[in-house]
Write a structure and sequence with these properties.
Layout: H1 5-20, H2 27-50, H3 57-69, H4 77-83, H5 88-100, E1 104-108, E2 116-120, H6 122-143, H7 148-170
Antiparallel strand pairs: 1-2
Helix pairs in contact: 1-2, 2-6, 3-6
Length: about 170
């Protein structure tokens, strides 16, 4: 495997810090840089799926959430937030953009006038069903470099780290 720009950058940063501040272990900074670069590269890779449809990552996440988890009646904004990676404060804005594109609709609740339900339109469902196979193929192509055991280990470590960070945020 040939060194990438990021590998070269990481080694340069490590060398520079050892020279400038030898008493400091730069490993945490390097890991954060590596994870940030990985997140950006992964995002750019999978965005190839939905950007031709003029959808941003948050919109794609909401469309996927509605496609996999919403009953015919749809989901409330709170349910949608709980089932997606989008925070409650951002849901309204993201949903409005998808409504403007004709991909989702907002309907008032029959039992509670203060509550609305969000659901895919026919056009939204068709778009997700059209793009989803290619989306999964893009993700699989990235992960094919890892063995099944490595994937399992990566998932285990990512879950462990995320649980630690989220529990620290909750305190």
């Amino acid at each position: 495997m040939t060194p990438t720009k990021t590998h070269q950058l990481l080694e340069r940063i490590r060398t520079d810090w050892h020279r400038e501040k030898p008493e400091i272990d730069p490993s945490p900074m390097l890991m954060f840089l590596l994870l940030a670069r990985l997140q950006g590269a992964l995002g750019r890779h999978v965005e190839q799926t939905y950007t031709p449809a003029d959808i941003n990552p948050s919109g794609w996440d909401l469309l996927l959430t509605l496609r996999r988890s919403a009953p015919d009646a749809g989901l409330t904004p709170t349910e949608l937030s709980n089932l997606s990676a989008i925070t409650g404060a951002s849901i309204t804005n993201r949903v409005s953009r998808l409504i403007d594109k004709g991909l989702v609709e907002r309907r008032g609740s029959e039992t509670d006038r203060r509550s609305a339900r969000i659901r895919l339109t026919k056009q939204g469902r068709e778009l997700v069903d059209k793009l989803l196979p290619r989306h999964v193929q893009h993700e699989a192509a990235v992960l094919e470099v890892l063995t099944p055991e490595e994937r399992a280990e990566l998932e285990r470590l990512a879950r462990k780290l995320l649980a630690h960070v989220e529990s620290a945020e909750a305190e």
